[in-house]
Amino acid sequence: MIARATALRGTLRDAQAECEAQGRVSENVNGELIRAGFYRVIQPRCFGGYEFDAPTFCRVMMEIARGCPETGWVLALTAGHPLIIANFPLEGQREVYGKNGEFRCPAAFNPHGATMPVAGGYRLTASWPSASGCDTGTHHLGSATVTGADGKPTAHVIQVLLTREQYRIVDDWHVMGMQGTGSKRIVAEDVFVPVQRTVAAVGVGRGNEPAQRTGLHANPLYLGRTASFLIAGLPSIFIAAASSSIGSTLVARLPPTASRSFISVTSDTCHPLPTGPSRWLSGTRTLVKNTSLKARSPLICLIGRISMPGLFMSMKNIVSPLCFGTFGSVRVTMMPKSE
Fold it and tell me: N or C terminus of the chain with fewer C-beta within 10 Å?
């Protein structure tokens, strides 16, 4: 599986510009992902998946992101969601996986939608922004607050699984970086969601943690906290994108009010992790020296044709660190003009 992902790198790099221009992973690239089985990495075997472990999942996502971070982002956030679905009622799982296990389910949880209990399920109305990969999805996973008999929202939050015909996609994703993730808005208007495609949720800040584990699958992979697993997938993308940038030239794309500038990059010596050469390198630091970047300007780095989301600089005209990924794989430092 990891070798398949590595072999696809050239194709993904060739398709980067198209992904960015279209604002989504293309049908051709998505077809390659489907044929390689990448969406099924942790999908239960009983529903047509491979049921591989978490390290394998992260290594596959890293290899895909080395070819295209935007495609890696979409794949990681979509292919990881069978972990959540594993705690839905068995009838609901059978329904969404179908006979062939073809299941791609992006998600967006906030703000919560509103549901009204009815016979056999709920009536749902919702508008969820930032649903990465929604153009290639077969379903959508969201969260909603249950409305009480008095018409007021209760403290009860549920996750809801929608089929493709139950929602529409609104293209409101127009950004400087990661345009190719297609993180658009999902809108559902008074649709019926059967009870087997819902589950009680906790952690309402994100709404992505089932309130209890059903134990329908024996593999411990499906019994732990799903949030920890899903969050681990994103640093895999950052690390892979950073690894592709070492020794490259970065260019800052700034607002019209800020002057454009050339950025030079140097890298410290990298040291491989003890786990072996298949993992990304630790101890990598990148020093970026800029002579005209203004404070408060949002930064977007273009690595060849690979774009990464930027952060806002410090309000001070001094060194301001920007960190990519929770593992600190790359440290980018903006130097003052006097330097």
Answer: C
Using the structure block, give the residue that is written with the tokens 């008999």. 149
Cβ–Cβ < 8 Å for 310, 326: no
Q: Which of 288, 247, 290 is nearest to 270 (CA)?
A: 247
> Could you give the angle at which helices 27-36 and 69-79 cross, rounded to 10 degrees?
50
Place of tokens 């549920």: 158
Cα Rg of the chain, angstroms: 21
Residues 134 and 200 in one domain: yes
> Does the residue 186 lie in any domain?
yes
For the chain, how many structural domains are there in total? 2
pLDDT tens series, the chain, 339 aa: 999 999 999 999 999 999 999 999 999 999 999 999 999 999 999 999 999 999 999 999 999 999 999 999 999 999 999 999 999 999 999 999 999 999 999 999 888 999 999 999 999 999 999 999 999 999 999 999 999 989 899 989 999 999 999 999 999 999 888 999 999 999 999 999 999 999 998 865 555 677 777 778 989 989 888 877 877 788 888 888 877 765 443 433 334 443 333 333 333 323 333 333 333 333 323 322 332 333 333 333 323 222 333 322 222 222 223 323 222 223 333 333 333
Name the DSSP letter for residue 107.
B
- The reply to whether 256 and 319 lie within a common domain is yes
